[in-house]
Design a protein that fits this description.
The chain is an alpha/beta fold and about 400 residues long. The chain folds into 2 domains: about 140 residues, Aspartate Aminotransferase, domain 1; about 240 residues, Aspartate Aminotransferase, domain 2 (3-Layer(aba) Sandwich), CATH 3.40.640.10. It is built from 13 helices and 15 strands. The strands form 4 sheets. A 7-stranded mixed sheet has the order 2-10-9-8-7-3-4, with helices on both faces. A 4-stranded antiparallel sheet has the order 11-12-15-14. The chain has a two-stranded parallel sheet with strand order 1-13. Helix 5 links the parallel strand 3 and strand 4. The protein is globular and about 60 Å long. The protein binds pyridoxal-5'-phosphate (PLP). Pyridoxal-5'-phosphate (PLP) binds next to helix 4.
């Protein structure tokens, strides 16, 4: 056989690809698959808690009950069963009126970030972000050539005065603000109730739509639930993203976007049709079957109990092993905590940690505009207690070695 012809012409990719870079984190995570490596880097749920038997049973039940319907093309908005379930669960959680027509089912909430970017962002448009912010959102917005206005944060999340200041001086005026108000990725912080009200009021005053990303809200370890921005808004357009990834399993890719704006939902539906026609029918049926079973609420409680214990183990280990100058927070839910090592560039620390076979994500990646180098994101959901203790001891060893 003759050898395959090599491509000789230059490929003329679209300009938007210029900002699509291989995620350093994803590249790094490949290394963490090696044995004996303890990774606090990824954002993975605990695989041993996946309800594998129950999902197998639910799949069989769906095949018996729906058969070909669950394997056929379906509507872009999602199955009526899933839309109803989301409207009821969120309506109950946030004490608000929601109807299935406010809900669309997505292939992961990451798809929601992409579709929302697609319908709002023209090249050069500005988006308001917390500093630091979720890297996957920055990646999604980068692909549409967004620019960023960043708002200062502290332990209670976004600072309303800083948001107001940014909006007063913004030119061009931003398209929306993206927020993770509850157990934020990457910091684990939660926006206080008072700030939620103030931020919604500011967005109403400036007529700025809010993109509320809430993958972790059901993973609360202590304290009372707080109202979502979606439920607080009177006039503001809030587009809320939720997901089954952290309460059932991310591989199912079942997630949802919820908004009272019919115009926004219609545009997302058009964008979704062009992207993938619809979310996976089979996993929507299976997810719904499992989520409406007696086992589901107990399953979520088990996840919460397990992650709470892992957070505590990690906090104890940090207090025991890390140098006294280390600062870290105590998130009341979710999967991440944030560590600051004053005077240390955590990106430079990473190779030393690789020698110790422990990984984390350097904080600098989560800042789209600012150079903040002393932070790190630690995930506490994926590794068991023993591994957490050992991993933090290794991390402390690396920090001491780095300082010498
Ligand atoms: C803040 C945030 N948003 C969205 C996602 C995407 O989740 P999924 O696409 O699995 O629903 C993640 C995943 O870790 C996340 O942390």
């Amino acid at each position: 056989m003759p050898p395959m012809a090599t491509v000789s012409h230059a490929l003329r990719f679209a300009q938007r690809t210029a900002r699509m870079r291989a995620s350093t984190i994803r590249e790094m995570l490949k290394v963490t698959q090696q044995p004996n490596v303890i990774s606090f880097g990824g954002g993975l749920p605990a695989p041993e808690l996946f309800p594998t038997d129950a999902i197998a049973d639910a799949t069989r039940a769906v095949m018996n009950e729906y058969g070909p319907l669950a394997l056929q093309y379906s509507v872009t908005e999602g199955t009526p069963e899933m839309r109803r379930w989301v409207a009821q669960r969120l309506g109950h959680r946030f004490d608000m009126d929601l109807s299935p027509s406010n809900v669309m089912i997505l292939n992961g909430s990451q798809q929601g970030l992409d579709l929302i970017a697609k319908i709002f962002i023209d090249p050069g448009d500005q988006i308001v972000l917390e500093s630091p912010s979720y890297l996957g959102a920055i990646q999604a917005f980068d692909a549409y050539q967004a620019r960023y206005l960043t708002v200062e944060t502290d332990d209670e999340g976004m600072i309303p005065e800083s948001l107001e200041h940014v909006l007063e001086h913004a030119d061009p005026f931003p398209k929306f603000v993206y927020l993770g108000p509850t157990f934020q990725n990457p910091t684990g912080r939660t926006l206080s109730r008072e700030r939620r009200e103030r931020i919604v009021a500011i967005c109403e005053k400036f007529e700025l739509p809010i993109l509320e990303d809430d993958p972790y809200g059901e993973l609360r370890f202590e304290g009372d639930d707080l109202p979502s921005l979606l439920s607080l808004a009177r006039k503001a357009t809030v587009i809320y993203l939720g997901t089954g990834s952290k309460i059932v399993a991310p591989g199912m890719r079942v997630a949802w976007v919820v908004t009272k704006s019919a115009d926004v939902l219609e545009k997302i539906a058009l964008a979704k049709q062009a992207a993938d026609l619809q979310a996976n029918s089979l996993t929507q049926y299976v997810f719904h079957r499992y989520a409406t079973s007696d086992q589901f609420d107990e399953h979520v409680r088990t996840i919460v109990r397990t992650y709470r214990e892992r957070r505590d183990v990690m906090l104890d280990a940090l207090a025991e092993h890390m140098p006294a100058s280390t600062r870290f927070n105590r998130p009341s839910g979710g999967m991440f905590l944030w560590v600051s090592l004053p005077g240390i560039d955590t990106e430079e620390l990473l190779p030393v940690c690789a020698e110790q076979r422990v990984f984390f994500v350097p904080g600098v990646f989560f800042y789209p505009n600012d150079d903040v180098h002393d932070g790190m994101r630690l995930n506490f959901s994926n590794a068991g207690n023993e591994k957490i203790r050992l991993g933090i001891a290794r991390l402390a060893e690396a920090v001491r070695g780095f300082r010498k």
